[in-house]
Structure formats: C-alpha cells, structure tokens
Amino acid sequence: MKISDEQWALVRRIVPRTIRSSLHCSIASLNPDGSPHVTPIGSFLPTAKGQGVYFDAFNAQLATNVGRDPRVTILAVDSGVLRWVRSLLAGRFVSPPGIRLVGTVGPQRRSTPQEIQRFHRIVGPLLRTRGGALMWKSLPLVRDVTIERVVPIRMGAMTSGSGPASRPDVMASRTRADT
Prior knowledge:
The chain is α+β, with helices and mostly antiparallel strands. The protein has helices at residues 5-22, 60-68, 81-90, 113-123, 130-136; strands spanning 25-30, 36-41, 45-46, 51-55, 71-77, 98-110, 141-152.
C-alpha cells in the first residue's frame, strides 16, 4: 500500500515528539519460536517517505530477530503531558496520539554524520548528561527500515471524527484489529 503525504506528515510529527516525551519507540519483532519480542529504541528517525533508520546499539535480540525475519512493527506514542492533559480536558485528540509503522528492517550499515547530527538535535540537552553521552555519543551503526503501512492509534471517542485519524484516505488500511 502506498503511504500518502498526509500519513507521512503524521509520522514526521509524532516520532520526534515520541522520542522527546518517552525517550523511545517500541519495535516488535518475532523470536525464533514465533513469540513477540518488544525492544525500546530511542533512536528511530523517519527519513524519506516510507523510510526510516534506527541506530543499532543495545539490542542484541532485535538484531538476531530481524536477521532471521525482517518484519517489524514500530509503536510511537507522543506521551507529552500537556498534549494529554489538553486532550483529556477537551474530550478529544486533535490528531492521533500515536502511530504504528509496519515494515521491514534492512542489514546493518555505517551511519552517516547527517543521521547522527539529526538524532543529536532531537535528544538535545540530554546528550550533555553522563548517561546521554554514554548511550548516544557514539552511534556508528544503523539499520534502514522500509515502512509499508502507517496505522494511526485510535482511542474510541477521543479520536473519532477529528484530525487525520478519521479521514478515509489516511485510514484506508485500518481494520478492526488495528485498534
């Protein structure tokens, strides 16, 4: 399925907000026995439409799983307190609070200086902390992600009838199981 410009704009808004508010996205992969494995990844970046990268560090099981089966689902939820308080007070989200990105992961490759610099801008002052420097200063490897489907998170009446989540062109791939 082709990803629309509106869907991609939603991805470009929600993913950086997720990294800032939650410090990670969750990436689900499949273990060898078929059971799900969820890994927190603090470095996922959307790039060109339908594409993204994440820095391949601290995730041995995810690396093993995608080496065997590259299919993944990435969950990004904007956990910003002000966004949630405003939405709860208003009784609705103006736009979806999160998204699922369904796709596949490519092989490990060297990261570019531009990818590292872009991620460093997102984490900002956290990079200057001792822990931030330990985790994010050296990011030599990335994996490319090809995104095949964007599924906005639905939260019943809080998301119905408002924003891109209710538009048929954005939600064309949505099924009852996606809620």
